[in-house]
Amino acid sequence: MSSGKSEQPKLNFKGQKPLTKQANKKQRADSSNSTNISMDELYNINTQLEAMTEGLSELREDIKSMLKREEIEDLIKKTVSSIMSKIEVTMTKTIETEVTKQTQTLNEKLTGVFFENQQLKQKLLI
Length: 126
What we know:
Residues 1-37 are annotated as: Disordered. By secondary structure, the chain is mainly alpha-helical. The chain is built from two helices and no strands. The longest helix is centred in the C-terminal third of the chain and has 57 residues, at 69-125. 0% of the residues are buried.
């Protein structure tokens, strides 16, 4: 066994080879592919920004059209004043009607008393 080479005994494996994952090869970034992806992403972002800007503009217009607190208070004051004026007119008419009725009743009673008084005077003179 001295032929100059050292002989190593051959190893003899029995059984199955263990399962291993295949190595992922890292690819160099293809500049045209990454540019296309970046452009697509930029387009999507731009579209989203435009939609958001449009939504904000609509909200701004909605807010402008909403009544401000002072306007609401003024509207409430005017409404209450209008209602109170109508109530006042109605109450005045009701009071005037009642006063007219009571005045008529008193006038009728006074007329009756005056008539009775006249009759009593005539009886006394007779």
